[in-house]
Design a protein that fits this description.
alpha/beta, 10 strands, 3-stranded parallel beta sheet
Length: 261
């Protein structure tokens, strides 16, 4: 991505608009290689499912995604209550030496992993008051997104479809409403299946895309990571370029007006 078009989150500039996770890979080596191929600068880690120093006897994920190279984004995946989500963020800040940037998830349903929006709003308010820089995972409800911005979240992350479903964007209208209403970055989070889904999200005007399963679950995760990197760049450039309007009828690429025959 061009240096003249940075992604700005919590006052920091990033050149990549693709954020990736660390779960579901075959091993640490594949995790490292896929993340490198993605070009991502922000890497999210599920603190309840990964070791970043809690257990000195287990491999430390930070060896594959060192904090001096990546911005680590601890997340509260697997939390179903406000209390658990807030506690997890506090633990992340302790383990990462005062790190305040977190991805907030408060889930409401074990089958769909849909967010519990009222609990998310409550947890976000608590965390913001404690000085955390909160990137909040939420539904594609424009009202909920606006409330999260009003609370003070540094980014809002509506789902495209259920987590890990690979269904792609199911409601473009809602995403477009969120993009047009909010002034903080809007990142599509969850439900992306392939590169074309990423391109669509970027063409709608989303500031970035966060994904994990679409890469880690691919037959060739490293190659898919590269594809996702290119899709983000192409989609962003298409958005900035401004697409032609859709029409019901043909419009000749080479019109006859002004010709000599």
């Amino acid at each position: 991505m061009s240096d003249s078009d940075p992604l700005i989150i919590a006052g920091r500039e990033y050149h990549s608009r693709l954020l990736v996770g660390t779960g579901k890979y075959r091993d640490i080596e594949q995790t490292r290689d896929a993340i490198a191929a993605s070009g991502a600068e922000i890497v999210t880690i599920a603190l309840r499912r990964s070791n970043i120093g809690q257990d000195p006897h287990e491999p430390n994920l930070l060896d594959a995604v060192p904090p001096d190279r990546y911005t680590i984004l601890p997340n509260t995946a697997g939390c179903y209550t406000v209390k658990d989500a807030v506690r997890t963020c506090r633990l992340a800040r302790e383990l990462l030496d005062g790190h305040n940037l977190v991805k907030l998830e408060v889930l409401g349903d074990e089958r769909t992993l849909y967010p519990d929006v009222p609990a998310t709003l409550e947890a976000a308010a608590t965390l913001v008051a404690e000085g955390f820089e909160v990137m909040a995972y939420t539904s594609d409800d424009p009202i909920a997104a606006r409330r999260l911005e009003e609370i003070g979240c540094v980014a809002v992350m509506p789902l495209a479809a259920p987590i890990g479903s690979g269904l792609g964007i199911q409601n473009r209208y809602n995403l477009l409403e969120i993009v047009e209403q909010l002034s903080v970055p809007v990142l599509v989070d969850a439900g992306v299946g392939t590169a074309s889904d990423v391109a669509v999200a970027m063409e709608l005007g989303c500031d970035a895309v966060l994904l994990n399963t679409a890469i880690a679950g691919a037959q060739d995760p490293v190659l898919m990571a590269s594809a996702m990197r290119k899709a983000v760049e192409a989609g962003r450039e298409a958005f900035r370029a401004g697409r032609i309007p859709k029409r019901r009828y043909a419009s000749a690429s080479s019109p006859l007006d002004g010709t000599f025959f």
